[in-house]
Amino acid sequence: DQQVKQNSPSLSVQEGRISILNCDYTNSMFDYFLWYKKYPAEGPTFLISISSIKDKNEDGRFTVFLNKSAKHLSLHIVPSQPGDSAVYFCAASDPLNNYGQNFVFGPGTRLSVLP
Amino acid sequence: DTAVSQTPKYLVTQMGNDKSIKCEQNLGHDTMYWYKQDSKKFLKIMFSYNNKELIINETVPNRFSPKSPDKAHLNLHINSLELGDSAVYFCASSQGGYGNTIYFGEGSWLTVV
Q: Cβ separation of A42 and B107 shorter than 8 Å?
């Protein structure tokens, strides 16, 4: 039972354009979300987070939007750069599940930014 | 300075062997984790320790045994390795409590032949 879904296994975007990575979740108790970036042969690196009290969080070129009613979040990267090419994971946690420390990850979306 | 470090990075071993993966964090966090990334690339939590106390123990064969000698270390010992144990194992840490970020190590690539 996949509680966090990233339905696009891959995405290709031209350099300088916007990349939009999507994530859907099924557990309505999730209210804290994180995005990670992963390069081959490395561990996931934290990018940005959002809690359910917000619908948007921005950090430089990265913005995460949360639509609680739709159980959907998205990561926008503007402008996209070749160095952004990586696998992006969405993760969620439920505050009542092991003190919110049981993070559930999506399967990832491979982003390729073409020069 | 590596925040979460795990060794070895690559490990090839035969079925039936026992092996350990070590993990150390220098972030001062009180919670540490082991995640497994399987062949389908899903990252799934295996264990979590808070101040040396086991708080998350997902459905994992009891051949896998975590050990936390102190809050900066969480080692993973695997007995009687099977082919299906081949995966990438990630150690991670966070400051305990809700709404904190988890930081991952670089991963240990385990191949059982």
A: yes
Could you give the angle at the alpha carbon of A1 between the alpha carbons of A91 and A45, nearest 5°?
A: 20
pLDDT(B105) > 90: yes
Task: Residue B32: name the closest of B94, B84, B98 by CA.
Answer: B94
Q: What is the residue whose two structure tokens read 């220098």?
A: B26
Looking at per-residue pLDDT, the higher value among B8 and B39 belongs to: B8
Of B19, B40, B43, B41, which is closest to residue B113 (Cα–Cα)? B19
Please state the rounded mean pLDDT for residues A97-109: 82
- Per DSSP (E only), the strands in chain B are 4-7, 10-13, 19-25, 31-37, 43-50, 53-57, 64-70, 73-78, 87-94, 103-104, 108-112
Contact A101 B44 (CB under 8 A): no
State the burial class of residue B90 (Cβ atoms within 10 Å of its Cβ: 0-12, 13-18, 19+).
Answer: buried
What CA dihedral angle connects B65, B80, B90 and A22, to 10 degrees? -110
Cis before A107? omega within 30 = no
Distance CA A73, CA A13 (A): 19
Which of B 13-42 lie inside 8 A of A, CB atoms?
31, 33, 35, 40-42
Q: What is the pLDDT of residue A99?
A: 64
Determine the residue among B5, B54, B90, B102 to mutate to test chain A binding: the one whose Cβ has the most chain A Cβ atoms within 10 Å: B102
Tell me, what's the pLDDT at B1?
A: 62
- Read off the pLDDT band of A17 (50, 70, 90): very high
